[in-house]
Specification:
The protein has one domain: Roll (Pnp Oxidase, Chain A), CATH 2.30.110. Helix content is about 20%, strand content about 40%. The strands form 2 sheets. Strands 1, 2, 3, 4, 5, 6, 9 and 10 form an 8-stranded antiparallel sheet that branches. Strands 7-8 form a two-stranded antiparallel sheet. The longest helix is centred in the middle third of the chain and has 9 residues. The chain is globular and about 50 Å long. It binds flavin mononucleotide. Flavin mononucleotide binds next to strand 3, strand 5 and helix 2.
Length: about 170
């Protein structure tokens, strides 16, 4: 496999609706001793506080959340279609219960200490700028609460600066 090369923001051309919503991404956080990853299909990219940022939405219950909160850093890895099965698995099983990264036979790499999934062909390395719990009171449409949070497992919005873009 080719190694990762840095990509300039000006060179980035992508469709976030497809890349995130349809093809999915892996949110990975931790340190060289232990890292965890989970599949995500909600989120976005944009600009905030003068930085190029990602928006990711992580429910309270996710084990990955503990790693993001501890380290303040995470990565988004975008994998080719042939890893769909692995992404379904990493999005169905919790790292709290199983060593799911080994079971999925994917591999963790590190960029300046931030873990990512090596099977990706595009990586966004991110530093958390803010973390905001989304609460029942925030919805203008009350049906959102019962539709998406019947078990009160709310999302937290992370806005994170993209410090590096790496591509194969
Ligand atoms: C396609 C797909 C998209 C997902 N998107 C999200 C998401 O955006 N936010 C979230 O909190 N969970 C999302 N999940 C669920 C987590 O990936 C799942 O609960 C995972 O097992 C959490 O693992 P962890 O406990 O090891 O962190 C998604 C799952 C799948 C299959």
């Amino acid at each position: 496999m080719h190694s990762f090369q840095p990509v300039d923001f000006d060179q980035m051309e992508c469709n976030p609706f497809k890349m995130i919503g349809q093809d999915w991404m892996l949110v990975t956080a931790g340190n060289e001793e232990k890292a965890n990853t989970m599949t995500a299909s909600w989120g976005g990219v944009g600009v905030m506080w003068g930085k190029n940022v990602v928006f990711v939405f992580i429910r309270d219950s996710r084990y990955t959340k503990e790693f993001i909160d501890r380290e303040g850093r995470f990565s988004l890895s975008f994998l080719p279609e042939k890893y769909r099965k692995e992404m379904k698995f990493l999005g169905a099983v919790s790292g709290r219960d199983e060593d799911k990264i080994s079971e999925a036979k994917v591999h963790v790499g590190y960029h300046n200490g931030v873990p990512y999934i090596d099977e990706g062909n595009l990586l966004l390395i991110c530093r958390v700028m803010s973390q905001t719990p989304i609460k029942k009171e925030d919805f203008l449409d009350e049906s959102m609460d019962s539709q998406w949070y019947p078990s009160k497992d709310y999302h937290n919005m992370y806005i994170a600066e993209i410090t590096d873009i790496l591509a194969r």
